[in-house]
Amino acid sequence: MTLTFDIKPTTSPTSDQERAAKLANPGFGRVFTDHMAVVQYSQDKGWHSARVESRANFPLDPAAAVLHYAQEIFEGLKAYKRDDGGVNLFRPDANAKRFWNSAERMAMAQLPESVFIEAVEQLVRIDRAWIPGGEGSLYLRPFMIANEVFLGVKPSAEYIFAVIASPVGSYFKGGPAPVSIWVSENYTRAAVGGTGGVKCGGNYAASLKAQAEAIAQGCDQVVFLDAIERRYVEELGGMNVFFVFADGSLSTPPLGTILPGITRDSIIKLARDAGREVREEAYSIDQWRADAASGKLREAFACGTAAVISPIGKVRSTSGDVLINGGDAGPVAMGLRKQLVDIQYGRSPDPHNWIRDVK
Ligand SMILES: *Cc1c(COP(=O)(O)O)cnc(C)c1O
């Protein structure tokens, strides 16, 4: 399928001075670039009106389906500035494929992989001055909403796909600080047959109360257990989880009800490349506690695009606190993190062909 993007540069670009001020301290998700990419879909026209234009509000009818029945999916990936001034995307094809699968599960129109990647690349090209240097990056947020004007419950006949971009600083200044996590006993994230494996906004809406409970318990993040036995560790609100054992092996919860993270997949491959055994297997919260106490478990860490790898220093639940690796970042988590980040920034070889050079 060929769609030509109409490139319409903004007539009111941010001044160099203002952009520099924003890039000096971008934080996460509050600073945005000048443009957005948009592609529309309707049942009769298919995908059409592909364009890159000035970032602006969408005209949205109050009866647009997304506002009522939450037909919405999204992605998250980053553009990295290399030392030679070039720009890398990390596995955008994997994001495009996951987006395609998410659309299928949510009964939405499926955007061809090539159009997804083109939209992301065109936006990165026009807004490349917004990519921070150093350990910063440009966070890209492709998403799709149902915008048919109809209150009946059915898959929408119209969609808007868009990509917006937000410069972000290094997630952690001076290396990642270990996070504390709260084991949610009151709430679950996903059940078999549900949408746990899909990157949809609704999953996040349903996780916010549990995350608020974690904060109230003095923790950084919530960790969810499976919905049937309430025993097996699934994932954090927005990150996958890994365990590192004394014999050098790793384990991570199997796919199904968890989100198939691209960072998760990349870590599995890097660890196996290094000769480590990696098991995708169910691991219970009781086993986690027992293994932490016996010393069999050495490290635990969370992973996702935004923070790459966050060591888990403490697990808190109604039955008390468990420290992991004495509450400190462990060498396996930190080693994998460096390996991954070096590939993303083009500082080390890319044996799996994960990097796409944005020309
Ligand atoms: C996006 C996401 C992740 C991490 O996926 P990456 O592709 O590694 O960024 C993990 N869990 C949830 C619920 C997510 O939405």
UniProtKB/TrEMBL annotation:
EC number in record: 2.6.1.42
Molecular-function GO terms, alphabetical: branched-chain-amino-acid transaminase activity
NCBIfam families reported for this sequence: ilvE_II, PRK13357.1
Family (UniProt): Belongs to the class-IV pyridoxal-phosphate-dependent aminotransferase family.
KW Transferase (keyword) present: yes
Organism classification: Bacteria, Pseudomonadati, Pseudomonadota, Alphaproteobacteria, Hyphomicrobiales
Species assigned in the record: Bradyrhizobium aeschynomenes
Broad class of enzyme this protein falls into: transferase
Name recorded for this polypeptide: Branched-chain-amino-acid aminotransferase
Function: Acts on leucine, isoleucine and valine.
UniProt cofactor(s): pyridoxal 5'-phosphate
Keyword terms of this UniProt record: Amino-acid biosynthesis, Aminotransferase, Branched-chain amino acid biosynthesis, Pyridoxal phosphate, Transferase
